[in-house]
Protein: Tetratricopeptide repeat protein 5
Organism: Canis lupus dingo
Amino acid sequence: MSFPRPGRGSESQARSVLQTLCDLVDQLYSFRECYFETHGVEDAGRKQRDVREEMEKTLQRMEEVVGSVQGKAQVLMLTGKALNVTPDYSPKAEELLSKAVKLEPKLVEAWNQLGEVYWKKGDIAAAHTCFSGALTHCKNKVSLQNLSMVLRQLRADTGDEHSRHVMDSVRQAKLAVQMDVHDGRSWYILGNAYLSLYFNTGQNPKISQQALSAYAQAEKVDRTACSNPDLHLNRATLHKYEENYGEALEGFSRAAALDPGWPEPRQREQQLLEFLSRLTSLLESKGKVKTKKLQSMLGSLRPAHLGPCADGRYQSASGQKLSLELKPLSALQPGVNSGAVVLGKVVFSLTTEEKVPFTFGLVDSDGPCCAVMVYNMVQSWGVLIGDSVAIPEPSLRLHRIQHKGKDFSFASVRVETPVLLVVNGKPQGPSSQAAATVASRPQCE
């Protein structure tokens, strides 16, 4: 391809070439984002290979049309962006994008792409600098999205500093949504920001619903969001902590199907299935405690084991101090049982790979064994077989789970913090409580 001498014609030609390059890169990214619109889920294992092949074809086509505009900042940026389409770190992309921002410091898209390269490289501080710097030149939703994402991974020396980063992450994601309410990626990243906030603030159910709503909105406004394995894994993680086990299993399974080369979703699905299998088995056998021993344990229960729940010192959520009515586990109704307290013996405990929740079986009579799931506890906290445990105003849930031919049915009581429990007549102190944390996939969301 030949170009005229410098002048209006050459400027027009250069603009045309840049537009062609931009179109080629847009088509490449569309191929990646819309892959499952032209391929079935059974092709998921080929996606990364196909994207890489498409990238090579695109780079070859770009090289054929670059001509006299070679070396321009926009060309360097577009070539770096094409190299950045795969989930792997590309040294060449870093080199080209670094040159682009030096040639044209106000080229915001180059800063955004360079930030993503640093993110993939694991240099979170450099990524943060890129996205923050881009926003000083121009407020844009991509920088806000990426800044929200990076803030949650930014190094923090204290828990308070990490909490500030998480809150700032939510703010940046909200700003991105406000700039374009029809951008599915903004809604997805807002969901992730709420997910981090949920774990950073003791699993507040209100924040959980905000995260789930944001994920649902992402799928509503962006048809490609349904094919995002990270969305399915993150939402499944939230469902697991909310004890929506059926939805969690489906989410892990869907994420695994969409990205067969990513082992975590399949592992998480298998771990949850194993947990539910072990839990239901222990509940059915009451921890395999022999009948005579179980009767002896139950016979040693005393009113003193209720501690402050029996003598008017229990303080309800409304701040009122009152005595609670002792009820058997079998008399509990689904939901919060206000004004009631249950007292029983621990017959088993069960830990998971993630250590949260701490799960144990509670028995108070000849009735069925009930699972108790305790959150926000320090790792050193726990109860032993034979301990007496009182649970004020217990929140009961009945589970019916079906997944891939397996069925699980059981009752559980959720305890948000061990501070709410009375163990062997003693209330649990603040030192037993800790906030949970969660890790996200270490690449661009």
